[in-house]
Design brief:
By secondary structure, the chain is α+β, with helices and mostly antiparallel strands. The chain folds into two domains: 74-142, Phosphatidylinositol 3-kinase Catalytic Subunit, Chain A, domain 1 (Ubiquitin-like (UB roll), Roll), CATH 3.10.20; 148-291, Pleckstrin-homology domain (PH domain)/Phosphotyrosine-binding domain (PTB) (PH-domain like), CATH 2.30.29. Helix content is 37%, strand content 24%. It has seven helices and eleven strands. The strands form three sheets. It has a four-stranded mixed β-sheet with strand order 2-1-4-3, covered by helices on one side. The longest helix is centred in the N-terminal third of the chain and has 42 residues, at 2-43.
Length: 297
């Protein structure tokens, strides 16, 4: 009996060892199969990446479309001299750029324009920031260079005389083109003139002066708006200081307390607007104001 039991015990141990080996081999196979499956998964396209890619593409497309949408043309109406003009612009266009566009359309220099929409528009604003939208009506106030020069009605004869005066060294007050006005004498309502004295601009307009036709002229300096208002009996021109190219003056013979003053409004000397009997004490202050050296008194 002892022998039988020992043999049976040996066989059972042998079987158990075989079972253990088989179990271990099965575990190894499972690991290998699992690792192969993992590799297969890595080589397969990930479904989760597809929507992310689409999402990125959609975001990029949205970013590309947005600026284009902002740059879409905007149709507005510009009212000038009681006439309406259809103008195409964009929301990102600045007011200064819009003025340059209107200069080409209407002939009004951008420096002589005022655009009004719920108040005065500033050059640094954009169409969008100023509240202008499709169909908005913008008011333009301004004068063409021809309108301004029409105040003095420059004729061909005047241009010839002006050219002669330019080449001549003769004082302004002795030249024929100016004697026409000066020979009429000192206006009764002219402001008092003082020679050899410099004063700042008065708080009231300079009045009582004459233009080349003998008509009354008044100068009002709007320094806060960078403008010079040139007024006659017929009209008032609001000139931006920057539109005046130069200023010249000379004392009047036998009346040195007064000057002849020339405002050059165009590219040539023939476009000077002449003013007579300007009080001498204000000449320097006038030049400083027009040429940019503002002085407040």
């Amino acid at each position: 009996m002892d022998c039988v039991d020992s043999e049976s015990n040996g066989e059972s141990k042998h079987l158990n060892n075989v079972d253990d080996k088989l179990a271990k081999e099965n575990k190894v196979r499972e690991k290998i199969e699992n690792s192969n499956k993992d590799e297969d998964r890595l080589t397969e396209p990930s479904e989760s990446k597809i929507p992310k890619t689409d999402l990125i593409k959609n975001e990029q497309e949205a970013l590309e479309v947005s600026p284009k949408e902002e740059e879409d043309p905007i149709e507005i109406k510009v009212i000038y001299n009681k006439k309406k003009y259809d103008v195409t612009t964009t929301s990102k266009t600045t007011i200064l750029e819009l003025k340059k566009q209107l200069q080409n359309l209407l002939g009004v220099p951008d420096s002589m324009q005022k655009l009004m929409f719920k108040g005065l528009l500033q050059d640094c604003q954009t169409v969008s920031s100023s509240g202008i939208m499709k169909g908005s009506k913008v008011m333009l106030v301004g004068s063409t260079l021809n309108d301004v020069l029409a105040v003095s009605s420059v004729s061909k004869e005047d241009i010839v005389e002006s050219d002669k005066a330019t080449t001549s060294k003769e004082p302004l007050s002795r030249q024929k083109i100016h004697r026409k006005v000066l020979d009429k004498g000192l206006p009764e309502d002219v402001m008092p003139g003082i020679k050899n004295i410099k004063e700042g601009l008065p708080h009231v307009p300079l009045s009582g002066m004459l233009n080349k036709h003998g008509g009354k002229v008044r100068l009002t300096f709007k320094l806060e708006n960078d403008q010079l208002w040139l007024s006659t009996k017929e009209r008032t021109e609001k000139l931006p200081m920057g539109s005046i190219k130069s200023v010249i003056s000379e004392p009047i013979d036998d009346h040195e307390e007064y000057h002849i003053l020339g405002l050059q409004l165009g590219p040539t000397e023939a476009s000077r607007y002449w003013i007579y009997w300007v009080p001498a004490q204000y000449i320097d202050a006038i030049k400083d104001a027009v040429l940019g050296k503002w002085q407040y008194f």
